[in-house]
Design a protein that fits this description.
With about 80 residues, this protein is mainly alpha-helical. The protein has one helix at about 20-75. The chain starts with 17 loop residues before the first helix and ends with a helix.
Amino acid sequence: MAEDQPPARYGFEPFDCAPALRLEAHERVAKLQNEALQQRLQKMEEALAALERRLWLAVYGVVAAVLAQVFHPLLAALP
């Protein structure tokens, strides 16, 4: 069983060096920034979808108004 464990290095405890800690901190910050960017992108996509629905509603409203103006004289001429 003792062969499965790595050998002790000259009696010192393992430690983290400053550059490795700085790199890990940078990776955590980059991950948080990426998550925040993804959340903002999701919100923007939702807002764009809502705007698109409003735009189509406006287009259908204009088409309905034009068709109403076209058919109004025709319906008024019928007995």
